[in-house]
């Protein structure tokens, strides 16, 4: 067996369980903001963790995704050797109406 076959599924926090401070802190980091913006422009489950062009290593990228999961922004699942992502837009918008719209604006 390969190491990837022993991976455990990541824990996910539902946006309903997220304090606004946690959501704001997750979105305040420039790398996480890039991840959220790129996910917002991609189809659900179409982006693997390694497909993002961010200036951090694997360990830091894993940490950033962990923070986004903990803030209820991202859901991840394993597909073969890759971990794919989706932005939890509908659920997050229901909890924090308008917040993602503000964050995703280009101005």
From TrEMBL:
CDD domains: HTH_ARSR (cd00090). It comes from the Bacteria. One of its GO terms (molecular function) is DNA-binding transcription factor activity. Residues 12-107 form the HTH arsR-type domain. InterPro entries: ArsR-like_HTH, HTH_ArsR_DNA-bd_dom, WH-like_DNA-bd_sf, WH_DNA-bd_sf. This is Transcriptional regulator. It comes from Streptomyces filipinensis.
């Amino acid at each position: 067996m390969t190491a990837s076959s022993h991976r455990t599924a990541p824990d996910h926090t539902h946006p309903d369980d997220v304090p606004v401070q946690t959501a704001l802190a997750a979105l305040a980091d420039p790398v996480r903001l890039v991840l959220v913006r790129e996910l917002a422009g991609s189809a659900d489950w179409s982006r693997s963790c390694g497909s993002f062009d961010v200036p951090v290593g694997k360990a830091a990228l894993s940490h950033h995704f962990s923070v986004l999961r903990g803030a209820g922004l991202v859901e991840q699942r394993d597909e073969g050797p890759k971990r794919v992502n989706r932005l939890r837009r509908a659920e997050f918008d229901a909890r924090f109406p308008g917040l993602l719209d503000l964050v995703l604006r280009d101005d």
